[in-house]
Amino acid sequence: MLDVHPPHEAAHTWKDFFIHIATIVVGLLIAIGLEQIVEAVHHRHQAQELTEALKQESLENRATVASDLEYLDAAIELFKLNAAKLDQTPQVKGQYDLVPVSRVKGFTSGFANTAWLSARDAGALAMLPHDTVKDYWFAEHYVDETEIELRTLFDALSDYSALTKLHADGSIRSEEEKTRLLLAMNHIQGLLRHMRSIVTAFGAANEVALSGAELSSSKLIEYRQKYPAEPPY
Predict the structure, then answer these.
(1) Nearest CA to 54 among 215, 205, 217?
(2) What pLDDT, on a 0 to 100 scale, did the predictor assign at position 109?
(3) Residue 27: inside a domain
(4) d(CA 142, CA 111)
(5) Is residue 80, in this structure, part of any structural domain at all?
(6) Which percentage of the chain shows pLDDT scores above 90?
(7) 14: part of which helix (H) or strand (E)?
(8) In this structure, is residue 47 part of a structural domain?
(9) Number of domains the chain is built from
(10) Residue 125 class from Cβ within 10 Å (0-12 exposed, 13-18 middle, 19+ buried)?
(11) pLDDT of 27-40, one tens digit each?
(12) If you count Cβ atoms within 10 Å of the first and of the last residue's Cβ in the chain, which end, N or C, has fewer?
């Protein structure tokens, strides 16, 4: 609040009046200027804190990308192995020696984005440079895709698990059951490969955001090439 006090003495001439008015105007301008400076410093401090929070989340997500790709590659190989066993191994007492999916562990089921969502919902993104917002917005797009794909993948894994437990002894008693299980395995392999593609794309976008570089197709390709190649089909 700005307080304007009346003069202690009455203005007797026009000169005194204008001097008094000028004094008030200058005082108001100084007060407004100081207030704006304080606000600008506060906003800069908030922007620095937000930038640091986003950076820390990106560093955390960098590690997550690495562990998720390791999981996905192992899972793809597992389902490829199981499909080959089921397709080629002769049936013995109606059972097949399949590697349990539980052998593959480590998928995190999502990336950290609390700082981004908090800033977005609070309207604080306007404090950041446009290119920074653009970079993190693009990375967030892949976070949303990952969450959608995860639901599809988990549903498919649940269906696969149900097929392996059609009978109490874990046996497969007909060609129809075998075919259904093979189709489920191939379907999951496709979903895992698609998930890997999304995670790799997010990793590239995350690296662009961390670097502070301007988002571009060439930058995304450059960072994407740093990730290990997908296992062969």
Answers:
(1) 205
(2) 60
(3) yes
(4) 10
(5) yes
(6) 24
(7) helix 14-88
(8) yes
(9) 1
(10) middle
(11) 787 777 777 776 65
(12) N
